[in-house]
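Limitations
The structure tokens in this dataset are predictions for the assembled complex, not deposited experimental models. Users should treat interface geometry with appropriate caution, especially where small molecules or nucleic acid strands are included. An illustrative entry is reproduced here so readers can see what is and is not provided.
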Amino acid sequence: MDGIHDLGGKQGFGAVLREADEPVFHARWESRVFGLNLVGAGGAARNRDHFRHAIERIDPVAYLTHGYYGRWLGGVETMIVEAGILDTAAITGRALELGASPDDRIASQPSSKPDHVDYEPLEPGNRRLVTAPARFRTGDRVRTCDRGTRGHTRLPGYARGRRGIVVAMHDGWVYPDTNAHGRGENPQHLYTVAFDGVELWGPEAESRVVVHLDLFEPYLERSDG
Amino acid sequence: MAEASNPAAIRAEAIESLLIEKGLITAAEVDEVVERYNERIGPLNGARVVARAWRDAAFKQALLQDATAAVAPFEFEGGQTEKLVVVENTATVHNVVVCTLCSCYPWAMLGLPPRWYKDPAYRSRIVREPRRVLAEFGVQLEPDVEVRVWDSSAEVRYLVLPQAPVNAAQLADDELVARVTRDAMIGVERFV
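Predicted assembly:
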């Protein structure tokens, strides 16, 4: 989806702010949100792609202002509500009891008609056997597809409709575009594709820059030039 | 207390307490995960791998060829490295890693990422103006150095193998490990 999460190449964010001697977590709540998700969010977390898509769908203002674990909180709450485990009103009610303000911005934006992932991962991890032969080989010239989607995808907007060269093959992997929506693991061949900076950013590109992306076979077609 | 007045902290507590009351999670299992990442998983893992590659040419070769297999004997815990690729800096190549779509990062090698790695400024800019961003980090690249940016858009995780210190042969193993920084393994610091 063309969400706020798709940040590559966006302009105006200013300097990268670093912090000396940064702790793993900056506050206890960050560690609780992290742990809550890693233990499966009470059964709501189905797979990585599902979680990433839940984060992509949070309130875009919250995405930019609540920080990384604020985004995780929005994603975790989205999954929990969409799974029917808790409802938003119950969470807000408890938060008000604990001292929240009714004016607080809530990151989670659960869908009223959510997708359900009604299967467990077929194997641990995300690598899978793909029996169909790989369509591309290292050295092939490829072009990425040029269409957006309302759903989850791992083709960033900045690399849509761009020409590159396959520089590595990674065999088969679970396909995020279907797995995030409960439409199957649908494994696909994965390739590392190298894009010249000028192809991505035009004449203003910095010199001698190559950007690499790991792209699933359905994102790619053969390119003549 | 800042924690109590933070809306995210309150909402997180609301969700955790409701899930505990429903018997779906326990505070202890959340504690266990937090403790594991706070105490046992961090950039030291990656530093040990890099130092070994600096010391041992055969290991370095194996690492660049198939990093997943080369690091398997270390038995690092922490996930997010089902497939690891190590990319080598040279006199004419500089590598830098990002995840523009979320914040993918080789947890088992480097621990959890620093805040700047996850912030919009780094994620948006490093693919478009890497030389400028690297200069802000103190890495001044000559024009003949190629910049290779690795945007972690699937489950492959990337680790940069920095250039070895010139006096590597004179350093003890633990001194060599101490030379390796997290930032160098992300690619926002460059030795030599």
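Some entries come with short summary sentences. For this one: The longest strand of chain B covers residues 83-88.
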